[in-house]
Design brief:
By secondary structure, the protein is mainly α. Helix content is 91%, strand content 0%.
Length: 168
């Protein structure tokens, strides 16, 4: 069991401690501050990244909430627009119906007035024709002998039949 690695001598132990002390001094003087500075810098960068991520997440939640509010408002506006459009359409239809009804009434009254005028004109023409026929019959009766009653009656019947055939 005399292995020098397991049981080192005092000289080896001294030089190892001295080497370790010098190495520790060099590391403590120049390496540790640089390493600690790099670690603190990294820690700060990670912490800033986490804070930024948390802030971004909160902003995303706010944006999502805002977007949902905007969507609800847009849906309400769409419903209002559709409702107003339907109401306007119904008003237009009702106005068109009322206008059409008024136009129909006006056209009907105009047609009735026209029919009335035509009827009056036709009756006036008919009266004029009857008067003319009466005058013609009277002329012919006067021309014939009024003394012969049978001839006069036969003549009047004959003329009336001629007039009836003319209008049939």
């Amino acid at each position: 069991m005399n292995n020098p690695l397991i049981n080192p001598g005092i000289g080896v132990f001294f030089w190892m401690m001295l080497s370790f002390g010098i190495l520790f001094f060099i590391l403590a003087k120049w390496a540790w501050p640089a390493l600690l500075k790099a670690l603190k810098s990294r820690e700060k960068a990670i912490e800033d990244s986490l804070n930024a991520a948390e802030k971004a997440r909160e902003e995303m939640l706010m944006l999502k909430s805002h977007n949902e509010d905007l969507l609800l408002e847009a849906k309400r506006e769409r419903d209002d627009i559709i409702r107003n459009a339907r109401a306007a359409g119904e008003q237009i239809i009702e106005k068109a119906k009322a206008d059409a009804s008024a136009e129909i009434v006006r056209m009907r009254e105009s047609a009735l007035e026209s029919i009335k005028n035509e009827k009056l004109r036709a009756m006036h023409d008919l009266k004029n024709q009857i008067a003319q026929f009466s005058i013609d019959i009277a002329e012919k009766l006067i021309k014939t002998e009024l003394s012969d009653r049978e001839r006069a009656d036969a003549f009047v019947k004959k003329e009336l039949e001629a007039i009836q055939k003319q209008y049939e």
